């Protein structure tokens, strides 16, 4: 076998072109072989098919057909977020243009830990992070791998600003990554504020903040777009309480942050500009391939906590001579230029184009909720706030709801999520596909209805 071609360099594009043809053909054929939103048969059958297709993962002699074989096997065995009946999670169908940009990022392979590995990518990252920070009223932003890393960084920056005694206060509705970050950073156990209607209760928060008379530094974490229901905490009230009590405020807008692009929905994020830090995540309501997280930071001096010096990457004399110091922009060292796909998306679609996508998925959620509401066999949890709809068959037990969801998964016919709210199990449709049509939503409800009829109430 001759020495394999490289993706960059003068020969790179010509070497990639036929391989891209192979990839695209295999994606198409694999998707057709699957035939639905999820491969049928459940975990054992899917795993067996994959093992059969892949064979020896490290053969003695290479297999020139491996690209086609593996891409086909992965496509056949994937959950396809672009299928209208794939609606369980905050798992968006990536835009073609963002995915194409990601290919360029892989081919060029800049690494954002030093300027000499990423001369243009580092400037693009600076431009895009500052622009997105401005959207939330912040001064700067860091690129992360997603909501979890952003939340961790928010806690780390707060701890460095206020000391190791810092205590996290979050709603019962907060994402698990916040409490996990407190554990990871060795912070005291968080105070959990009730969220009786799915959003953090400001009166209960006030009592917590008033009662913490021991002068301990507090970090309040609010949520703009809860994972289970897509609800938005009362941000202005929470921000006012934090200001009155001298508490720091982090807002996890991993889901809801995308509303910033929509003229129609942006107003729901009032109060976001009061936060010390904000988690954004464009691989949710932003149509990016994973990973595309951000953490916006109101006070740039908070970022000095991340300063790091490593002679091979940012020697003092190099920095003094004008080479940008990138190491303090992340806890990671080698780092992908995830900013390229984000930049291409922002510029290709503009605020109007992105806002339209946001409006479309929010409209779909309202349409689906209306179908559920009008159907005598189903109960709607609440009108949707963003693009999540919780519903359940009337008279069904929680076991039936769970079994119906698993049956849809096993048959590969639909991917719905689940949410336990006030002790009852709900089916969750997270609508992130702007191409979904009304007929798809009706088909989803009919599928569930047929299955429930096969599971008489107990
Ligand atoms: C509100 C919220 N925050 C954070 C996260 C974590 O994001 P990621 O999975 O990108 O780490 C999620 C994931 O769904 C989320 O819903």
UniProtKB/TrEMBL annotation:
The modification N6-(pyridoxal phosphate)lysine is found at residue 284. The keyword Lyase applies. Its cofactor is pyridoxal 5'-phosphate. One of its GO terms (molecular function) is aromatic-L-amino-acid decarboxylase activity. It comes from the Bacteria. Gene3D superfamilies: Aspartate Aminotransferase, domain 1 (3.90.1150.10), Type I PLP-dependent aspartate aminotransferase-like (Major domain) (3.40.640.10). Keywords: Aminotransferase, Decarboxylase, Lyase, Pyridoxal phosphate, Transferase. It holds the Pfam family Pyridoxal_deC. InterPro entries: PyrdxlP-dep_de-COase (IPR002129), PyrdxlP-dep_Trfase (IPR015424), PyrdxlP-dep_Trfase_major (IPR015421), PyrdxlP-dep_Trfase_small (IPR015422). The keyword Transferase applies. GO terms for biological process: carboxylic acid metabolic process. Belongs to the group II decarboxylase family. This is Aminotransferase class V-fold PLP-dependent enzyme. It comes from Streptomyces luteolifulvus. The lineage of its organism: Bacteria, Bacillati, Actinomycetota, Actinomycetes, Kitasatosporales.
């Amino acid at each position: 076998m001759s020495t394999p071609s490289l993706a960059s360099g003068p020969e790179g594009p010509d070497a990639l072109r036929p391989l891209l043809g192979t990839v695209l053909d295999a994606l198409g054929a694999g998707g057709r072989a699957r035939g639905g939103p999820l491969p049928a048969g459940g975990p054992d059958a899917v795993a067996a098919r994959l093992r059969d297709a892949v064979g020896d993962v490290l053969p003695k002699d290479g297999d020139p057909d491996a690209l086609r074989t593996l891409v086909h096997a992965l496509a056949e065995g994937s959950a396809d977020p672009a299928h209208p009946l794939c609606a369980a999670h905050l798992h968006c169908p990536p835009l073609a243009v963002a995915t194409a940009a990601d290919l360029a990022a892989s081919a060029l392979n800049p690494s954002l830990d030093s300027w000499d590995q990423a001369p243009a990518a580092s400037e693009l990252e600076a431009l895009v992070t500052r622009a997105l920070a401005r959207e939330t009223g912040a001064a700067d932003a860091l690129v992360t791998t997603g909501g979890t890393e952003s939340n961790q960084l928010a806690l780390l920056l707060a701890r460095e600003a206020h000391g190791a005694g810092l205590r996290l206060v979050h709603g019962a509705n907060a994402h698990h990554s916040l409490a996990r970050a407190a554990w990871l950073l060795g912070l005291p156990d968080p105070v959990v504020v009730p969220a009786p209607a799915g959003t953090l209760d400001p009166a209960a928060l006030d009592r917590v903040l008033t009662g913490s008379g021991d002068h301990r530094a507090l970090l309040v974490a609010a949520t703009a777009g809860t994972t289970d229901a897509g609800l938005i905490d009362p941000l202005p009230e929470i921000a006012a309480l934090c200001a009155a009590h001298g508490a720091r405020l982090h807002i996890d807008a991993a889901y809801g942050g995308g509303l910033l692009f929509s003229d129609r929905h942006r107003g729901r994020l009032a109060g976001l500009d009061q936060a010390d830090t904000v988690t954004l995540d464009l691989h949710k309501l932003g149509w990016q391939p994973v990973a595309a997280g951000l953490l916006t930071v109101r006070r740039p001096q908070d970022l000095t906590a991340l300063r790091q010096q490593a002679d091979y990457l940012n020697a003092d004399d190099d920095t003094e001579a004008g080479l940008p110091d990138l190491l303090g922009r992340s806890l990671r060292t080698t780092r992908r230029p995830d900013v390229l796909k984000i930049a291409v998306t922002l510029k290709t679609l503009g605020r109007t184009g992105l806002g339209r996508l946001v409006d479309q998925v929010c409209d779909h959620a309202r349409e689906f909720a209306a179908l559920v509401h009008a159907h005598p066999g189903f109960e709607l949890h609440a009108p949707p706030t963003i693009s999540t709809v919780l519903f359940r068959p009337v008279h069904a037990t929680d076991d039936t709801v769970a079994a119906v969801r698993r049956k849809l998964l096993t048959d590969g016919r639909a991917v719905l999520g689940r949410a336990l709210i006030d002790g009852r199990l709900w089916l969750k449709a997270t609508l992130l596909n702007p191409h979904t049509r009304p007929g798809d939503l009706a088909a989803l409800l009919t599928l569930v209805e047929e299955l429930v009829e096969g599971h008489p109430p107990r």
